[in-house]
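Data availability (excerpt). The following record was deposited with the supplementary files.
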Amino acid sequence: MRRNNYLWYQFWRHAIVGNGLRFFYKKIKAVGKENLPKDKPILYIPNHQNSFMDALHVAITTKPVIYFLTRAQAFKPDIVGKFLWSINMLPVYRVRDGFSSIQKNNDIFEKCIRYLKNKETVMIFAEANHNLKRRIRPLSKGFTRIAFGAEETHDWDLDLQIVPVGINYARHRKAGNTVQVNYGEPIPVKKYMELYLKDEREGVEAMKHDVYEAMKKLVFHVGDLNEYPVQKILWDDLEPNEMKTVDPEIANARIARTKPHVSEAIIDKAKALTKKAEKAGVELKDLTDQEKLSFKHILMSPFYLFSFINNLIPYQPLRYLIENVIKDHAFDASIKFLLSLIAFPLFYGIVSIVLNLTGAGWPIILGYLLLSVITAPLFVQAKDLFTGSPKKKLLKQDPVLYKELQEELKIFRDLRETILSE
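Predicted structure:
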């Protein structure tokens, strides 16, 4: 790795992003880290559902310094591009960026090959774009070009290892939930040497197939897009236990058991229900959450109240962007997280300055800052407690629609119980 940015990279990875994510999410769990090769070059291939958040989760749950291949559009304006370069992000150009831009990929791929020669780690999203659907999409061949190129350049002596990665979110668009990052068993590129040298196309297709099959086991994966709405409602929207949503062994076993129960009629019902919820501006998951005011909520009510009042002002720019500017919901969590790193600490700093100007002593100012940091993760729950959850809001605004949605959800609740009882 470039020595001149090592400390800078580690500062952003651990001090800023690592700590920020641990505040943003309730729990981040890494599974399969024992599979990661030691003292070998690694090519990480993660699934790509949640925009920038995917790369960040891989970065903070592993030890190696990583070079991230990132879509070139993210490097604009230039000041942003320079920052991204400084934390090891490398631009990848697509057809829409123009033919001359695509040619720049040759230089980027050559850089990746040099990094791999030094037994460093490169990460590329082989699905080529992000999508919130819980499934692995067809893989592009860009990663095979780097993998085979690196081994060919160095006479098949690198021992480059491809590590498939599955990132599973309990809720893609929201904070305060659980994330599980699964690392699969490494796949040696040299495994494909004989086939690749015999027929380059067959070698590429064999590698893509094996990586794709490995990735499917690491995520909540619905292979059949037609039945996706049914599977999502049953094992995502209606699932009260977050750990079962993010655990691919549990989720995929349930998906397989559901297939015999999927008919055209139930698919149509699922599609209609999903569309109705989207039109109402509510997620089905919000309608199925079990809301209970527990003793813990009562005991911690002063902290929830403080968090709500203290964070409501810096939250407004985030809310405005999400509701009025951002069209692609795959960016929701990324925007919330990245702006939270700026808006909330900035607000706490301004309040501290105001307290100082009004004559408050340092014990009060430090106490305020400490309480702000401690209670920041409570804001998501506090907001629902004091302004009403999406479920309560819909019930109040349109009780007829709320009743219709719940009645239609009951069909899937009954189906879920049937499948689980088998």
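Summary of structural features: Strands lie at 27-31, 42-46, 66-71, 89-92, 121-123, 161-169, 178-183, 187-188.
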